[in-house]
Write a structure and sequence with these properties.
Length: about 375
């Protein structure tokens, strides 16, 4: 249970959080202003704040912030010791907002998963997972992805020599499965349309063995700057980062062997790691994002070479942003045919050969993710 000092710090953090600020941003800003707090104290405050949002639906709204944080920590301790201590009906009613039910039938096991502390996943360089686990003394393999490791240690990963020399990236397992679904060939040309800070660009570039090229575009140039720093650390040079707002004027006339649209989304699949977002995301957000997702797909579809592969991924689970977008896109593009997302595997209990898959949080013990794939028909 958190001590009084932790409760006080956590209550001060909560007081700074508005609907437009994420809890992790508020924590970062708070720690910048309270530099004397050591890593164990920071960890305790972060855990208390995240537990608060994870268990918010159960808390007594009339109690003081400290009391509510204490209630949440007690709930979390009880649940961690015995997940059955909270009934599935209570999880369905209080762990997620009401608007979610018509958008997704969350399996009870996924609701349980949402309440757990999240795993931290690493992506080792191709073929290096066993060696990395050995050198970090902390990393469990998973049957779902050969290069993925569940981090089981306590050390600050950013300070390790292995991180500084680009031996691994911190990347959620579900995101790694998106790269695997793309299956790019060495020497190919790919376009990562919403590249952000480059998590998936780097994975594609690595799978391509530093050969060929990945165009990495995003509307946010600051994120592309981070991508460049990460690529330099990983010694990956087969990419090109260019700002693009998603408008009709494409960043290049080139045609691609593959295009990944890892679109902006409501992030329901990340609610285990980011429980605050459960209470700030709205159904209007979902509908607006669904329109953006379809527009982005429509915008880039003509840039595929005949026979080229298009992959759509979103770390969300709402119908409006997943199957509804994919089905509407399929209906509008007879020149593209839906093809299996995973060629020769079925991670997370997905149906072999399925052209749209949902990676449920409980099945991969990671973020929830939706992935769909198409191939451009040859004329
Ligand atoms: C899910 S995030 C991408 C994460 C990234 N692919 C990774 O693996 O690290 C979605 C990204 O889409 C970008 N974005 C949002 N709207 C966009 C638009 N209209 N055109 C281009 N990029 C957009 C955001 O800036 C954000 O970086």
């Amino acid at each position: 249970m958190p001590d009084q000092t932790t409760l006080n710090h956590a209550a001060q953090v909560l007081a700074t959080i508005g609907s437009d600020q994420r809890a992790d941003t508020a924590l970062r800003v708070y720690f910048e202003r309270h530099r004397y707090l050591q890593p164990p104290a920071r960890r305790a405050v972060s855990q208390a704040v995240f537990a608060y949002f994870r268990w918010l639906g159960w808390l007594d709204s009339k109690a003081s912030p400290q009391k509510r944080i204490e209630q949440a920590a007690a709930m979390h301790e009880r649940f961690t010791a015995d997940p059955k201590s909270v009934k599935p009906q209570a999880l369905a009613r209080f762990a997620v907002p009401e608007w979610l039910a018509p958008e997704v039938n969350l399996p009870p096991e996924s609701l349980v998963q949402l309440q757990r502390d999240p795993n931290l996943w690493l992506r080792a360089r191709p073929g290096q997972a066993a060696a990395l686990a050995k050198s970090l003394f902390a990393g469990e393999p998973t049957p779902h992805a050969a290069d993925a490791l569940r981090f089981t240690g306590r050390q600050d990963l950013f300070r390790t020599e292995q991180f500084k020399t680009g031996e691994f990236e911190i990347q959620d397992l579900a995101s790694q499965l998106v790269g695997i679904a793309c299956a790019p060939q060495p020497g190919a040309t790919w376009w990562d349309v919403c590249a952000g800070e480059g998590g998936k660009t780097l994975h594609l570039a690595d799978l391509m063995q530093n050969k060929g090229v990945v165009w990495a575009t995003d509307r946010h140039t600051g994120r592309l700057d981070t991508l460049k720093r990460r690529a330099a650390r990983a010694k990956l040079f087969n990419y090109r980062a260019v700002a693009w707002e998603g408008g009709t004027r494409l960043p290049t006339k080139a045609k691609f062997d593959g295009i990944l649209v890892d679109a902006p989304c409501s992030g329901v699949g990340t609610w285990q790691r980011n429980p605050h977002a459960r209470w700030t995301t709205t159904l209007e957000d979902v509908h607006e994002l669904a329109a953006t997702q379809l527009a982005l797909l429509n915008q880039v579809a003509g840039s595929l070479k005949p026979g080229g592969r298009l992959v759509y991924s979103v770390c969300t689970l709402t119908r409006s942003e997943t199957s509804a977008v994919a089905d509407a896109f399929t209906a509008a593009h007879p020149e593209l045919e839906p093809v299996p997302v995973f060629a020769d595997s079925a991670p997370g209990g997905t149906t072999p050969g399925a052209t749209q898959v949902v990676l449920w949080p409980h099945a991969v013990e990671a973020n929830g993710m939706f992935i769909a794939a198409w191939r451009s028909r040859k004329p």
